[in-house]
Write a structure and sequence with these properties.
With 414 residues, the protein is mainly beta. It contains one helix and 41 strands. The strands form seven sheets. It has a 20-stranded mixed sheet that branches. The longest helix is centred in the last third of the chain and has 5 residues, at 352-356.
Length: 414
């Protein structure tokens, strides 16, 4: 068989006994479509020098993939990621790179991607206390049938990202960022585009003014500190560790059902699911900022609270699309000082009687009766359309039956 760098069969049939091509290097081997392999009537086994085997029959095709070559970062000359002299062998597309201080020589510099990577590795593994700094773009790509992988492993291993894009892609689909064994990843800028982010026990992912865009799941078994930026999820959010959000926006933008598991405190959340539900599946949850619905149904399972503190009160933004199913608990912070407070209902369809069964009120003809003497009025209604001083616009609540006084939204000042 003639040696070729590219071997392709689009039509016809190929029958052969076992053929060994030990001296031939093929960069790619393509068949028109694997789904239609039966139409080619392929039989036998084709083997290559790197032990890649395709076993064909009328019924199926079994594929045994080559393992990509592995090179070590040595940092022998300087910290330049694109300098071939800093590796144990010349870097190339679809190669595996191990960053481990045990392999450092010469200057023993930790790698810095200061400008866009001039090659696209298949795997990047940061381990045993190594450090990788990312300031520009890095794309991980497939090696024939070997899936790409970005792993930060072992205690004190760190990735520090301030700019650029880390894109982990396999045949047009994203693959995983794995943080494990006490490793850390700190992003103060840039974007990580992946399938899953897996934060294993004792590991930590810090996100500040950065973007994490996932086509599948965010799995937290360690710690995720989300201070600002954006997290986009097309599948599930699972918190079995520690999730701390002090800012930023989490957007659920999938096309199928998305679950939120574990108990988490969100700041801002957007539900923008184009085809199904975003469900609080397990745990109890809270929002301290804004809940925005633009598409899809947010299923609460009565497990979410909109928080209110002395510094602010959570809210539901104007609903431009989608819906909410289930109850939401809404808080209203009242400080401990003595005096009158302005209160209003956060939702429509409520009456003063709905409050009276939870708060002691006097003078409302309600279930708590009246304080003396003869009657002390603890609740007043407020009508901002009336002119005059603030007190002239108050009306004693006893003028109406408490069960029928509607609770309108109150102004924050007179």
């Amino acid at each position: 068989m003639k040696q070729k760098d590219y071997l392709s069969y689009n039509t016809g049939s190929l029958s052969y006994a076992n053929i060994s091509l030990s001296s031939i290097l093929l960069n790619q081997l393509f068949f028109y479509t694997f789904e239609n392999l039966r139409t080619y009537h392929l039989t036998g086994t084709m083997r290559f020098a790197c032990l890649l085997s395709f076993v064909f029959s009328l019924a199926h095709a079994a594929v045994y993939a080559c393992a990509p070559a592995t090179i070590n970062w040595t940092g022998n000359v300087n910290n330049d990621w694109n300098n071939a002299a800093n590796y144990s062998a010349a870097p190339a597309n679809s190669i595996r790179v191990v960053i481990d201080p045990a392999n450092y020589t010469g200057a023993a510099a930790s790698p810095v991607i200061a400008v866009n990577s001039n090659y696209n590795p298949n795997w990047v593994t940061v381990q045993n206390g190594a450090n990788l700094t990312i300031q520009a773009n890095l794309t991980l790509q497939e090696n024939l049938f070997a899936q790409p992988d970005f792993t930060v492993n072992n205690a004190t291993s760190q990735v520090n990202m301030s700019a650029g894009v880390v894109d982990i892609t396999y045949w047009g689909a994203k693959r995983d960022l794995n943080l494990q064994n006490a490793a850390g990843f700190t992003a103060t800028g840039g974007s990580v585009n992946a399938r899953d982010v897996n934060i294993n026990t004792t590991t930590q992912y810090n996100v500040t003014t950065a973007t994490v865009d996932l086509t599948r799941d965010l799995n937290i078994n360690g710690t995720l500190n989300f201070n600002s930026g954006n997290v986009y999820l097309e599948r599930d959010f699972a918190n079995n560790g520690t999730y701390s959000q002090s800012g930023g926006l989490v957007t659920f933008d999938g096309t199928g059902n998305q679950d939120i598991d574990g108990s988490s405190a969100f700041t801002d959340m957007t539900v923008n699911n184009s085809g199904s539900n975003v469900t609080l599946n397990t745990g109890t949850h809270s929002i301290s900022g804004t809940l925005t619905l633009t598409n899809g149904t947010f299923v609460t399972n009565n497990a979410i609270t909109l928080l209110s503190t002395g510094s602010g009160t959570a809210r539901i933004a104007e609903i431009t699309g989608g819906a909410i199913t289930g109850n939401i608990t809404m808080e209203r912070y009242i400080d401990g000082s003595y005096g009158w407070k302005l209160l209003g209902s956060a939702v429509g369809g409520q009456t003063l009687g709905d409050w009276d069964d939870d708060i002691y009120m006097s003078g409302v003809n309600g279930i708590d009766g009246n304080a003396c003497c003869p009657i002390w009025y603890s609740v007043y209604t407020y009508d901002e359309t009336l002119l005059g001083p603030f007190q002239d616009r108050d009306r004693k609540s006893t003028r109406l039956n408490s069960s029928h006084i509607p609770l309108s939204r109150m102004p924050s000042s007179a």
